[in-house]
Amino acid sequence: MSAVTYQSTWRRVLAPTGNTGDAVFRVLMLLVALLMVGIVVAMVVALAADSMFSIRQFGFGFLTSQRWDPIKGEFGALPFVYGTVASSLIALLISVPFSLGIAIFLVEQAPRYIARPVGFLVELLAAIPSVVYGLWGIFVLAPVLRQYVEPALAKWFGWLPLFRGSITGIGLLTGGIILAIMVTPIISAVVRDVLAAVPGSQREAALALGATKWEMIRVVLVNGAPGIAGAVILGLGRALGETMAVTMVIGNRPQISPSLFEPSYTIASAIANEFTEATGDLYLSSLVELGLILFLVTFIVNGIARLLVWNVTRRTGGVGRAA
Amino acid sequence: MSVSKRSFQLVAWLVVLVSVFVSLACNGGGGSGAVSLQGAGATFPNPLYQKWLSEYSKLHANVRIDYQSIGSGGGIKQLKEQTVDFGASDAPMKDDDLKSAPGEILHIPTVLGAVVITYNLQGVSQPLKFSPDVVADIFLGKIKKWNDPKIVADNSGATLPANDITVVHRSDGSGTSAVFTDYLSKVSAEWKDKVGAGTSPSWPVGIGGKGNEGVTGQVKNTPNTIGYVELAYAVQNKLPAAEIKNASGSFVTPSIDAVNAAAAASAATTPDDLRVSITNAAGPQAYPISSYTYILVYKEQKDAAKGKALVDFLWWGIHDGENYAKELQYAPLPADIVKRAEGKISSISSGGKPLR
Predict the structure, then answer these.
(1) How many other C-beta atoms are found inside a 10 Å radius of the C-beta of residue B84?
(2) For A244, nearest residue in chain B (alpha carbons)
(3) Percent of all residues in chain B with a pLDDT value above 70, rounded to a whole number
(4) Mean pLDDT of chain A
(5) What are the residues whose beta carbons fall under 8 Å from the beta carbon of B62, sequence distance 6 or more?
(6) Environment class of A77 (CB within 10 Å of its CB; exposed 0-12, middle 13-18, buried 19+)
(7) B135-164 mean pLDDT
(8) Using the beta-carbon criterion (under 8 Å), do A67 and B171 form an inter-chain contact?
(9) What Cα–Cα distance (Å) separates residue A307 from each residue in A232, A300, B155?
(10) ∠ CA A148-A151-A155 to the nearest 5 degrees?
(11) What ipTM was reported for this prediction?
(12) β-strand A68-69 against A74-75: which pairing, if any?
């Protein structure tokens, strides 16, 4: 009797339609979904297990120490965390206005014969391998920054500690700009799709009420706000984890300096640079703990971003209340 | 229903076909009595080892050797875990590492390399000259300008600008950094105390470039920089190379012969296990920032057939293989070091029986 009820609940959960094929398909999809969750959990567990030695050795001090000296066996993550977050923030500060501009132009203003090739080119940027961005950074961007941009910034804004220090073209600012160029196609492509999905009736309604084109675009933007925020989060994720291109132009120096001209270092770059030749258990363990911290930083930053999105959608209610 | 059944059958047949092909292809390469060896380690000698493997496989069709350049640290780790048949490292293994290995490990030197100091300084045509303490002070950040009296003293003819020096170093862990910092630790007490020697030192000043190409890129593109790269890389890319004052007091241009001279000059003081640093060598022609690179093997081989193949390969390497060194910009071993390496290879045994 119980076997029958058991079987029937099983059937109801897996095959609500009573079709065996559907049941098989559901189980398959469930397994695929669980596999993804399992991989994430396995990653965290493996990272935590392998970094146990370093966690025991340094404790919380690992997060607050600024020394990274493999020869003397002293390891601290703070300069890497700073470099990772700062370079990503610079990237977003530059990239978000550009991406919004590109998306608005493509959806609202450009005629089709311009919008299609431009949109295609922007998406093409996303397909360029990051090592190519890095080479371009070394050979083109860094010299331009060194000769023109950084001296100008130092001249006009030198009263800010951000723009002081020796000018080499290699450093936090260069890393941030390279990242900005790399995340722009991602953010603008998603924002373009978000804006295109805003119903045309919204635009017509705004125009019918006498709004100017600019006011109409504001209505569209507010409607798409959650999607735009999602696009920015996607870009941020890429910026936080990007390794190769940043490594080639950021200067790879574990230090916290107020100047954007000074070299810096990101977590991903440090792992990529030092893992192959890391000898000694503590050194390896510390590098793995850096990986764990990058995981946590990404989690926290994503969490904050999602809170912001939630806040925005709650206030606007997802409906155009632009005024 | 029948359509999906048919496509299902089609997929099943495809799977069977593909797996048959794959298994055929895997067996096809072998043949009876084939031996396969796995090696991993240093990136610096990788071009030479790949050349060795391709030449050796032409001579011995039944031996298949693979070498993965994953870095010295990784090579030592995999050898200790016995996941490879031989490892490779630029720096000799440390005593602790040797003790914790499951068996006695031999160091077989294969070739020599050197570290070249390169720079980007406009208006200077002749090669710059550096004394050891000047190199140390520049990389310590104590000498900050190109026209510092200490640099001027070594380069009387050159007009040096009053610009800031930008130091460029390797950002990735590297045997090149290990050799360079080993040299600096020998010639500067302050360097030894503050920084020390290792694959990833904590550099007092400068910006980091990834790999030889990264350092070269930064140096070539940034005026007033100074950096260090491998000899082979510097020669192939025609980078300016500084002359360094050696322990005998003469300024030496980095070259294959000067590196060979450093090894020859250190041969008398080279210990029995061949684990030696030859930086700051004494001979008048010796280039002071030189080093050996090693293949690491267990003295006792578990598998006699594999061990025999490995011994034959190593023997070929330090004799015939040395002929390929110069064209790839590595310095071949001096004759008496080859003799001593022969002794090491001959001592490799399996089950108590020597393999050569």
Answers:
(1) 23
(2) B210
(3) 91
(4) 88
(5) B31, B33, B34, B35
(6) buried
(7) 94
(8) no
(9) 13, 11, 63
(10) 130
(11) 0.79
(12) antiparallel
> One-letter amino acid identity for B308?
K
Q: Is A68 helix (H, G, I), strand (E, B) or coil?
A: strand
pLDDT at B157: 85
pLDDT in tens, B330-356: 999 999 999 999 999 999 999 888 888
Burial of A319 (0-12, 13-18, 19+ CB in 10 A): exposed
How far is residue A158's CA from residue A109's CA, in Å, rounded to a whole number? 38
- CA distances from residue A131 to A251, A289, B67, B157 in whole angstroms, order as listed: 15, 25, 25, 42
Pairing of strands B251-252, B243-245: antiparallel
Per-residue pLDDT band for B31 (boundaries 50, 70, 90) equals very low
The partner residue sitting opposite B210, judged by closest CB among A247, A277, A278, is: A247
Which positions in chain B touch A146 (Cβ < 8 Å)? 222
Q: How far apart are CA A293 and CA A283, in angstroms?
A: 15
- Region of poorest pLDDT, from A93-102, A219-228, B124-133, B223-232: A219-228
CB contact under 8 A, B73 and A70: no
CA closest to A245 among chain B residues: B210
Q: What is the DSSP letter of A109?
A: I
Among A145-154, A218-227, B101-110, B146-155, the minimum mean pLDDT is found in A218-227
Q: How many CB atoms lie within 10 A of CB A59?
A: 10
Q: Do B202 and A139 touch (CB under 8 A)?
A: no
Q: Do B172 and A263 touch (CB under 8 A)?
A: no
Of B332, A272, B78, B304, the residue nearest B66 (C-alpha): B78
Specify the amino acid at residue B51: K
Residues in CB range of A86: below 8 A, 6 or more apart: A172, A176, A264
What residues of chain A lie within 8 A of the CB of B76, using their CB? 279
- Look up residue B310 and give its amino acid: L
DSSP alpha helices (H): ranges in chain B?
A: 2-28, 46-59, 72-80, 95-99, 132-140, 149-154, 175-187, 189-194, 211-221, 231-236, 256-266, 304-319, 335-346
Are the C-beta atoms of A253 and A223 separated by less than 8 Å? no
Tell me which H or E stretch contains A245.
Answer: helix A244-250
Report pLDDT for A20. Answer: 82
Q: How far is B70 from chain A (nearest CA, A)?
A: 6
